[in-house]
Amino acid sequence: MSTLLQQLLNGLSLGSIYALIALGYTMVYGILKLINFAHGEVFMMGAYAGYFAALALGVQHAGSAGFPLYLAVLVLVVSMAAAALLGVTIEFLAYRPVRSAPRLTPLITAIGVSLFLQNAAMLAFTPNPRPYPPILREVRFELAGVIVTNVKLTIFVVAMALMVGLTWFIQKTWTGKAMRAVATNIDAARLMGIDTDRVIRATFAVGSALAAAGGILFGLDQIMINPLMGVLTGLKAFVAAVLGGIGNVRGAVLGGLLIGLAEQLTAGYLSPDYRDAITFVILIIILILRPQGLLGVVRPEKV
Amino acid sequence: MQRRQLFSLAVAGIAASAEACKKKEASGSAAGAGPGQGSEIVIGHYASMTGGTAHFGQDTDKAARLAVEQLNASGGVLGKKLKLVTLDTRGDGAEAANAVSRLIDVEKATAILGEVASSLSLQGGPIAQRRKIPMVSPSSTNPKVTQVGDYVFRVCYIDPFQGKVMALFARQTLKLDKVAILKDVKNDYSIGLADAFQKAFVGSGGTIAIEQSYSAGDTDFSAQVTAIKSSGAQAIWVPGYYAEVGAIARTAARLGVKIPLMGGDGWDAPQLFTIGGEALNGSYFSNHFAPDQASPKAQKFVADFKAKYGQEPTGLGALGYDGVMVIADAIKRAGKVDTAAIRDALATTKDYEAVTGKITMDKDRNPEKSVVVLKIDGGKAKYETLVSP
Question: Which residues of A are less than 8 Å from B247 in CB distance?
Fold first, then answer.
């Protein structure tokens, strides 16, 4: 029983990370109908930004001695800002010039940006895996035979807080409302006087910042980071977005948590060899049975 | 229009620089028509200079360069200078095969040193064999590596012996009855060493509590460690490479698993300690030599290495040094720079005094050597015992 609870807990914290990344996929898709395949690399770059920020602020590699909380928050903010800048730059340089091209063109551009960033990161940071600095001091306690760490709890809490914040942002702020308007009909939104370029820029910035937060949490949870960490994690987060219903914010969160749990339970009870496969089995099943995703709605295609 | 012009200019620029690269390569290979024709003898080295096993390649390469430097300082081999050419495999199988082809075709290597990882030696070996260029793996311990053919050698022991030593150490010295196995299923070395351990451990009356696996490059090990925790194992046999092992140790500590980890020579890198930290205290692994318990020859190597690079060599580094020295010894005994003659000389290597012990090639081109068991304490590996075949 305690083993099952432990696996579920591990799955939830992994799933929260997937959910944070899935939000970026879903937001960009909702507005541009573009699957931003470079999003996994923004997540990776965010993790590296946090890594270098933490080292610059004096966090040692293995020393788990106390590190003040405000510095941990500062690392998070720095990396989210850096990733937001990267996301906006990618949008400006790579996607804006091909925005009016057929849908296949931006998709292939996205794959190109993804490969470019992977290789640039290998060149800049070397392909060697790096141990992530302990931004949070780890405290461990036991609850009914289940080991709970403050890191796992923080991952869950930070992820949930950011998601609640995002929902508020989309529902209540002017920029959020403009985003929803652009998502519904970009041309009508432009006619109503909404600066669509600015809204798209904001979408990329917010999505990328969330991915960077996911990157830092991933580094804390998984101990090591490397330049190819965004490939598989990004793909799984993309599946999570599809599972929840791409374009749907709550669906992305639900999908992320489900994928995290499915992966952890498969690894724990079936075989770790199938942990990556299960995600894609779920993708195939969902595409056959409910292509619009769990929380997605079917919209008739406009002609 | 302007933009298009700029674009074509850029394309022209790239094409021109590619052309320049080609020319450079061509002049580089013009030195000799075949192996050993020029004034120097080229030893090709393919190694993971970057990637998840970067320390293996870097340390082996440093030691190999030290060996070449010392040989050249004492007059070279057969009156010719040795030249070490290193190509990076990035820890990738396809790159390893490419590197060996390039070492033979472009760099005109007379002999080849490499790889550390067994999976990569199994990619490079068949090419060296087909082209009849002798290859010496410094530290690939999987038996299959030298079964590729009669041009492939190694200067380390093999896994059936390494696994057996550690299994008997766990059984007889540590008095363990139940051990969990956690192996890397994408890695020939890890699979072979897990099998060898299991066979000897079960053969001597122990039981395997649970078998778990991961794949190189995985970052999350919590599911496996959680499963092992509930299995009642007294130790975990993790015959993997250092980066993953370090992360596994940290995961185990985080999940409150207090049993020791045990592993093989794939643990041998300082990064093991930077990643694993205190979580590794009380763990054991087998290696090729211990810097603190060494023969005079080994002590000289350690001192020379420290003087040149300002750091301690690993056991894998020591084997890189031995690899070059064994190749040079074979070329000397062959008396000419002829790959077939060098192969024959390598096959008859007998009682060669190397840093990591005496090397005598058996009929399968594997030397019989002792295994050193090290214990980790306070972020350092210390000599525990030595087991001879």
Answer: 222-224
